[in-house]
């Protein structure tokens, strides 16, 4: 065994030296292979890091196997009072609650919005989370009735905002204008239960941080609990279901569960609750697409290695005859493949690192911040290199090992015929996969074009919006209304402004508020959860949303006046199908009944591709939010008014976080996410097209070199150079045709999976298929042009002398 191992290592070392010298003498092969494989390896490494961050995120909890998330049947969350009752039941060993939020950090002109997790006093103790510096707060000092002012922060926040000094313990930070003492720093490797969208600051539940503290009708806490020894998820679920049913009998004012079963599931799944089912599928499709790019690259390199083996067939046959044997030839070829793949990894892994460092805006930026190369990337990279080595080198190595010295000497160039057929089959597969990628990219591009011209139901091109984030301490409800009125008056007086309105919503701006609703006095319709928003007078006119019937809100719809509501057409059709919705009364959660005074046209609010959803609008003055958005309709260019509006808001609102941009920019999140997906598919399609071009060129260039003598003889017998050129271009089209045919079949089978992500376009879109076929024809002709040009320049006399 030891002798075999020594012999193998000596042979491997010899093959390594020989392969290195050979590749250095073939820089074209080395460069093309490294770039092709580098693109595939780089894309897969980036996706691996993203998926590692999203799906393999293990939250930091003490008894990981026993910690579960708990949901009542009526909602995903508990009210604080219901949570306290759940604690007392003894169903779980421990139970803790939290709510994610955002608060204003700082004071004066240095104010920013910061992600905050409002947690129950026992949160850290119940989950077994310890501080790396200082301490966490506990049930004694952080009880809600004590109005606690303690804060635990992440390592990132500590370094960025507190200078990373141990002396930060005991310092005071201002959140919504209230002082909180920093008592502890969480470890650097701490992972929040909410996944990669993690908060930076943890503060205790109190009336300062949870306004619904005393309301059973406002569920706002996500509950985590520790299962008792021997207790199963199913047993806990049944117990919680019974507990909720009992609560409904005692507290009829709480949000009813209506017979639905509670949910108990592992805490690691919490971050995916509420995530659309298409998200996981989209991630899978993206990774499959990246894998397809790598496979195309491997097929490309495989074809190049087969052509190289054909050129070296005499050398390889002699090596086999001199004692290397078939195994030695296979090992030599695999070592050469390994070196090419390592060269590709040397290009791809730094490329992946660079891609993760590119600045990304919006929600994807949080994912990018959380993406960190860790030890799990190393085995993935090694596995990728191993698979790529086998994929690139095994077939060429096995075929090369079958070379026979006598046959090679006798047959000369004719022995290349069966090998060329294999290479043509590989190119057909490569073309087919590239065709699928390019058609998918074209579908995304056409969908994006449809979206860009889609009717959103409102006018995003003549507006400016100012986001003003208020804090509860400085702005009571009456103060919010007064500030809104002053902002409307001040901005409305600016030159170039047609109308102004306030709201707590920006259409397509990412803020969707869902609340329990039922028509007042109706027990035959189950409680549902439509979108609800607060808007001020002239809101619909300012955004260009048509009023179908009734009226908009006006100055009479304020605190103390009868509650009013405006609904959209979908709401009216859904809840009042056989009568006029105007004058009907609706009720949301524990709010007073409101009379429907207007019906407006359906318009996009959450996402572009959504089906119209039911929406209820309340008068902002009757339900003033801390999220105040000032919408401005302009008679001039919106960009020209951004600075003016910002100055006016600064002047009136004072030191609060403010963001001012055009309405088109503010609604760009949905467009940006889709554009990012389209760009990603476009990159992959373009890479696939480039790799197909290289593969086709390699086959045609090798075929042209093998037929140089034939072309010279044909021209000597009267064929023109144009005939030879046309024949080569025809051959290039024949090389592409089988791959395109296979690609069409594959596209028809695979592309319906994209239907969910295409807006206003079919996955069988003829224009995309025709464009894809046209592109592959162009690629085939482009790949065949240089070999064809080389053949038409052959000197017939020199060709005859070589025969």
Structure report:
- This protein has 803 residues and is of the alpha+beta class.
- The protein has four domains: 188 residues, no CATH class; 189 residues, no CATH class; 153 residues, no CATH class; 204 residues, no CATH class.
- The chain has 22 helices and 21 strands.
- The strands form three sheets. Strands 1, 2, 3, 4, 5, 6, 7, 8, 9 and 10 form a ten-stranded mixed sheet that branches.
- A hairpin with a 2-residue loop joins strand 2 and strand 3.
- About 1% of the residues have low confidence.
Structure in a nutshell:
The chain has 803 residues and is α+β, with helices and mostly antiparallel strands. It is 51% helix and 15% strand. Strands 1, 2, 3, 4, 5, 6, 7, 8, 9 and 10 form a ten-stranded mixed β-sheet that branches. Strands 13, 14, 15, 16, 17, 18 and 19 form a seven-stranded mixed β-sheet that branches. The protein has a four-stranded antiparallel β-sheet with strand order 12-20-11-21.
Identify the notable features of this structure and list them briefly.
single chain; 803 residues; alpha+beta; 4 domains; ten-stranded mixed sheet; seven-stranded mixed sheet; 21 strands
List the helices and strands and how they pair.
Blueprint: H1 2-24, H2 27-55, E1 67-71, H3 80-89, E2 94-107, E3 110-119, H4 123-127, E4 133-134, E5 150-153, H5 155-162, E6 172-175, E7 178-185, E8 201-204, E9 222-226, H6 233-250, E10 263-266, H7 277-311, H8 313-357, H9 363-370, H10 377-401, H11 405-411, H12 416-452, E11 463-469, H13 477-492, E12 497-503, E13 517-519, E14 531-535, H14 539-543, E15 547-550, E16 564-568, H15 569-575, E17 585-588, E18 594-600, E19 615-619, E20 627-634, H16 638-653, E21 658-662, H17 663-666, H18 668-706, H19 708-716, H20 721-750, H21 766-792, H22 796-802
Parallel strand pairs: 3-8, 5-7, 14-19, 16-18
Antiparallel strand pairs: 1-9, 1-10, 2-3, 2-9, 4-7, 5-8, 6-7, 11-20, 11-21, 12-20, 13-17, 15-18, 16-19, 17-18
Helix pairs in contact: 1-8, 2-7, 2-8, 2-10, 7-8, 7-10, 7-12, 7-18, 8-10, 12-18, 12-20, 12-21, 13-16, 18-21, 19-22, 20-21
């Amino acid at each position: 065994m030891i002798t075999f191992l020594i012999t193998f290592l000596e042979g491997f070392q010899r093959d390594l030296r020989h392969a290195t010298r050979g590749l250095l003498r073939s820089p074209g092969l080395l460069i093309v292979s490294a770039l092709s494989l580098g693109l595939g390896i780089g894309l897969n490494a980036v996706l691996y890091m993203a998926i590692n961050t999203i799906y393999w995120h293990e939250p930091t909890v003490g008894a990981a196997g026993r910690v579960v998330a708990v949901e009542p049947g009526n909602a995903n969350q508990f009210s604080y009072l219901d949570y306290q009752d759940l604690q007392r039941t003894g169903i779980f060993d421990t139970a803790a609650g939290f709510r994610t939020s955002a608060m204003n950090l700082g004071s004066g002109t240095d104010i920013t919005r910061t992600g905050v997790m409002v947690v129950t006093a026992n949160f850290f103790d119940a989950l077994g989370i310890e501080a790396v510096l200082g301490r966490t707060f506990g049930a004694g000092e952080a009880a809600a009735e004590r109005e606690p002012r303690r804060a635990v922060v992440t390592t990132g926040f500590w370094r960025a905002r507190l200078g990373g000094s141990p002396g930060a313990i005991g310092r005071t930070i201002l959140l919504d204008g209230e002082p909180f003492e920093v008592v502890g720093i969480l470890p650097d490797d701490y992972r929040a239960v909410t996944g990669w969208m993690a908060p930076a600051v943890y503060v205790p539940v109190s009336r300062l941080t949870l306004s619904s503290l005393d309301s059973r009708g406002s569920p706002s806490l996500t509950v985590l609990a520790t299962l008792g020894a021997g207790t199963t998820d199913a047993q806990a679920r049944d117990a919680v279901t019974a507990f909720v049913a009992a609560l409904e009998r005692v507290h009829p004012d709480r949000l009813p569960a209506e017979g639905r079963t509670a949910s108990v599931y592992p805490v690691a799944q919490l971050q995916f609750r509420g995530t659309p089912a298409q998200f996981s599928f989209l991630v899978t499709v993206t990774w499959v697409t990246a894998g397809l790019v790598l496979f195309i690259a491997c097929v490309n390199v495989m074809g190049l290695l087969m052509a190289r083996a054909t050129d070296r067939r005499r050398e390889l046959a002699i090596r086999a005859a001199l004692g290397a044997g078939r195994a030695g030839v296979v090992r030599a070829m695999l070592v050469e493949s390994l070196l090419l793949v390592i060269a590709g990894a040397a290009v791809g892994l730094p490329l992946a690192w660079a891609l993760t460092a590119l600045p990304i805006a919006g929600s994807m930026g949080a994912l990018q911040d959380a993406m960190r190369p860790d030890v799990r990337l190393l085995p993935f990279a090694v596995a990728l290199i191993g698979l790529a080595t086998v994929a690139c080198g095994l077939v060429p190595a096995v075929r090369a090992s079958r070379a026979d010295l006598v046959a090679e000497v006798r047959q000369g160039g004719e022995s290349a015929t069966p090998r060329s057929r294999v290479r043509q089959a590989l190119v057909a597969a490569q073309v087919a996969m590239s065709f699928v990628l390019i058609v998918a990219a074209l579908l995304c591009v056409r969908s994006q074009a449809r979206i860009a011209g889609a009717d959103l139901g409102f006018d995003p091109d003549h507006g400016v919006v100012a986001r003003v984030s208020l804090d509860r301490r400085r702005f009571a409800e009456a103060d919010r209304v007064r500030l809104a009125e002053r902002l409307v008056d001040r901005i409305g007086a600016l030159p170039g402004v047609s109308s102004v309105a306030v709201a707590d919503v920006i259409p397509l701006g990412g803020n969707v508020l869902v609340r329990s609703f039922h028509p007042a006095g109706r027990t035959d319709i189950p409680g549902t959860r439509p979108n609800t928003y607060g808007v001020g007078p002239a809101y619909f006119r300012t955004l260009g949303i048509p009023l179908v019937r009734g009226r908009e809100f006006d100055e009479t719809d304020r605190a103390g006046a009868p509650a009013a509501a405006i609904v959209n057409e979908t709401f009216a059709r859904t809840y009042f199908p056989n009568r006029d919705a105007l004058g009907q009364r609706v009720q949301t959660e524990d709010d007073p009944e409101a009379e429907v005074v207007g019906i407006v046209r359906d318009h996009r609010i959450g996402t572009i591709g959504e089906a119209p959803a039911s929406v209820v609008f309340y008068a902002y003055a009757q339900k003033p939010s801390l999220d105040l958005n000032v919408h401005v309709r302009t008679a001039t260019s919106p960009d020209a008014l951004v600075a003016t509006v910002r100055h006016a808001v600064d002047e009136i609102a004072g030191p609060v976080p403010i963001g001012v941009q055009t309405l088109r920019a503010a609604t760009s999140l949905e467009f940006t996410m889709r554009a990012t997906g389209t760009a990603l598919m476009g990159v992959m399609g373009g890479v696939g097209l480039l790799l197909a071009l290289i593969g086709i060129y390699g086959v045609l260039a090798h075929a042209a070199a093998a037929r140089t003598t034939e072309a010279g003889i044909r021209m000597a017998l009267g064929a023109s150079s144009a005939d030879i050129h046309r024949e080569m271009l025809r051959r290039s089209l024949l090389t592409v045709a089988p791959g395109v045919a296979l690609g069409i079949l594959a596209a028809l089978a695979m592309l319906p999976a994209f239907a969910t992500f295409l807006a206003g376009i079919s996955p069988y879109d003829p224009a995309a298929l025709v464009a894809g076929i046209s592109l592959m024809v162009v690629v085939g002709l482009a790949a065949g042009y240089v070999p064809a040009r080389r053949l038409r320049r052959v000197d017939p006399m020199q060709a005859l002398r070589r025969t």
